[in-house]
Amino acid sequence: MRISVLRPPNFHVAILVVLFSLLCVMTGCTETVPSLFWQEHWRMVGHLIGPEHTGREREDWIAVFNFPDNGEIVQLVSDQVLAPDGWKPVTLYDVAYNEDAGVLVCVALRYYPSEPRNRSEIWLYDLNTQRSKWIGRRWLGASHFAWSGDGHRLAFLATEIPVRREPRRAGVYVYDLQTETLTELADDGLVSYEPGQTGAPVWSDDGKFLYYASVDRYAMRIELATGHKESFAVPAISILAVNGDEIIYRTQPKQRGLGGEESIYKVKWGDSKTTLLYRGTWFVEMLVSPSRRFIMVTDRISYSGTKYILIDTETCNTYSGMGRYFPRNVDMFPRTSAFSRR
Q: For FRET with 225, which of 68, 118, 197, 308 sits at 20 to 30 Å CA-CA?
């Protein structure tokens, strides 16, 4: 397994922190990032853009960015991860990293001349053996992966290709690394998921339930042992985090894009009382901290301006100016988003 670690000079980081503190004093800024933020070990999986080389192809990497403690970037493997049949994807749409198992799950769009549109190919790549294994092929759409807490199961949303002229169906799937089996947990009807909007499923702390937003824009949860599915009528386009019986969700925007309005709420399952956490313009993506207490949001307020917001879901406080903690040469997965969950 080829892994390189890049660490920024601690001296330069310290200088930046001091300069930022002086700037806050001079401008009257009183917002202070909560101390618990620094105790979180945030991780983002992304595409590390390599330097340009004269006379040969630029080498890019799939990498993990750890922050805010040391800004460490771990280069996992070259961006040219081959599929099991040797196919070399032009662009990987999404990648999720399982550190415990040492594997990546990759999805890329592939064109087949005999079919009218691109298909989504999903495979696992073992960093130790450098071998790939198919999970699913020729899906109409697939993305938004979520590893279980024990690292043994992978949940994702996908739309199957119609068989014998049947309507296409969207569903929630779980792949078991130990048994190498793929199971459909939920069939959500005849409408496909929207990769640019629908979020990943979320595992409960005990691994007994899986939460997600259905195509009907309801919050859903499935008990894995029984397969029992329960709905909760809140206008959720995606579930961001689950803490006990409390869910944090993103609402369906009335107008997506600039000039629109989106919101993030929290509510106890089955309760009618909701709490507004943040309202913004256009959420590019969200990143949830390992403790599930904090949420980082990129809020696109104009074509050239983006706000980086930190939300404390317990105190309901928000903090701005968080963009300085992110690297400038890392393009995060999914390709349409700024962040990706583990």
A: 197
Confidence of residue 331 (pLDDT cuts 50, 70, 90): low
Residue 52: partners with Cβ closer than 8 Å, 6 or more residues away: 58
**Token pair for 4:** 């390189």
In degrees rounded to 5, what are phi and psi of residue 39?
A: -90, -10
Is 119 contained in some domain?
yes
CA distance readout (Å), 13 to 23, 220, 247: 15, 43, 36
Residues facing residue 108 across a β-bridge: 92, 121
Give the burial string for 232-258 (b: 16+ CB within 10 Å, else e).
bebebbbbbbbbeeebbbbbebeebee
Q: Confirm if 133 and 84 have CB atoms less than 8 A apart.
A: yes
The model's pTM: 0.82
Asked whether residue 133 is domain-assigned, the answer is yes
As a 3-state breakdown, the chain gives helix, strand, coil percent values, each rounded to 5, of 10, 45, 50
> Could you give the CA distance from residue 288 to residue 223 in angstroms, rounded to a whole number?
23
Please state, as a whole number, how many other Cβ atoms lie within 10 Å of the Cβ of residue 301.
12
In a domain, 20, yes or no: no
Count of domains forming the chain: 1
Would you state the structure tokens that stand for residue 300, as one six-digit string?
């696109």
Q: 141-147 and 119-126 as β-strands: parallel, antiparallel, unpaired?
A: unpaired
Q: Which helix (H) or strand (E) holds 92?
A: strand 92-98
The dihedral region occupied by 68, where left means phi > 0, alpha psi between -120 and 50, and beta the remainder, is alpha
Residue 184 placed within a domain: yes
- According to DSSP, the β-strands at 274-280 and 283-288 are unpaired
Per the structure, the complete domain to which residue 174 belongs is given by 81-193
Paired tokens of 202: 């979320």
For the stretch 132-148, pLDDT in tens is 999 887 777 777 889 99
CATH of the domain at 119: 2.120.10.30
Closest alpha carbon to 213 in 184, 248, 246, 255? 248
